[in-house]
Amino acid sequence: MGKLLVVVGLLITGAGLLIISGVPIGRLPGDFTFKRGNATFYFPLATSILASVILTLLLSMLRR
Question: Is 33 helix (H, G, I), strand (E, B) or coil?
Fold first, then answer.
């Protein structure tokens, strides 16, 4: 449980540093935005796939 908390903390810190440095997290080319009138729908498909791949790799390395 302790290792998991450390990894989650490092991931949050890393994401914060990326956002501060100007990396467009959440605005990748595969993310869809639909606007009609006053309504906006945002579907982060590419961001979700990228986060899934990164988390899968990290968790598989921790299990070994």
Answer: strand
Distance CA 34, CA 42 (A): 6
Q: Which residues of 2-24 are buried (b: 16+ CB within 10 A; e: fewer)?
A: eeeeeeeeeeeeeeeeeeeeeee
* pLDDT tens, position by position, 5-62: 888 888 889 888 888 888 777 788 889 999 999 999 999 999 889 889 988 988 888 7
User: pTM of the prediction?
Assistant: 0.62
- Are 4 and 59 a contacting pair, CB within 8 Å? no
Positive or negative torsion for Cα 17, 18, 20, 25: negative
